[in-house]
Amino acid sequence: MKRAIKPLIWLVLLAPLPWLVWLGFTGGMGAEPISFMNRYLGDWAIRILILAIAVTPVSQIFRIKSIMRYRRLIGLFCFFYAFLHLTSYVAIDQFFDFAAIWDDIIKRNYITVGMVSFVLLTALAVTSPKAMVKKIGGKRWRFLHKAVYIAAPLVAFHFIMMRKGFQLEPLIYAAIIAILLGFRLFRFLWTVRKRSKNFSFASMNL
């Protein structure tokens, strides 16, 4: 059963791509196929990001430590879809017009935020292999990977700004990210408080 989980994750997380191809061949992308494709890939990037940051809370709440081994794979899939999202913008939307792209980064706030979040996700993806932990050191690696706490809210903010006007979907995704990161913050503060009490108790018995 355990051997089937990783191939199943690959199958499920790759499934949006053939569906996108199918939509392209059947005219299911609507009147603006380029815009549809870009948003479609971005939507899946944030969905998989949510799945990746949900692994730790689910593992802790339900005491399923075994799922932690799949967190890195899910995170890499998030980066993969974010990369495709950016590539569709650079190659298909802008036709590698880097002057226009730079102008967009400077003038359009949602693109600025998106680029910053992509840089952070790139840093996480590049340093995700186990060999990188040994190369840069465990403490530095763990500190670097806390950048997900910055990248995730930025991705949510990018999504909200990109969808002009009031739309419920990006707000729901932002709320889920806030809850998941809030759970981590709560666990951290609880641990600090618990350690502080233990330290005080030990001091009284010296």
Folded structure, characterized:
This protein has one domain. With 206 residues, the chain is mostly helical. It contains 10 helices and no strands. It is globular, with a radius of gyration of 20 Å. The chain has helices at residues 2-14, 16-26, 33-62, 71-93, 98-107, 109-126, 130-136, 138-144, 148-162, 168-204. Helices cover 83% and strands 0% of the residues.
* Helix-strand category: mainly alpha
- Major beta sheet summary: none
> What is the total number of structural domains?
1
SS elements, strand count: 0
Rounded average pLDDT = 89
What Rg is obtained from the alpha carbons, in whole angstroms? 20 Å
Order of helices and strands: HHHHHHHHHH
| Strand proportion | under 5%
- Note the overall shape: globular
Number of alpha- plus pi-helical segments: 10
Low-confidence stretches: 201-206
- Give the termini separation: 51 Å
Q: Give the helix proportion (percent range).
A: over 70%
In summary, what is this structure?
The protein is about 85% helix and about 0% strand. The chain is an all-alpha fold.
Q: Secondary-structure blueprint of this entry?
A:
Blueprint: H1 2-14, H2 16-26, H3 33-62, H4 71-93, H5 98-107, H6 109-126, H7 130-136, H8 138-144, H9 148-162, H10 168-204
Helix pairs in contact: 3-4, 3-9, 3-10, 4-6, 5-6, 6-9, 7-8, 9-10
Name some characteristics of this structure.
206 residues, 0% strand, mainly alpha, 83% helix, globular
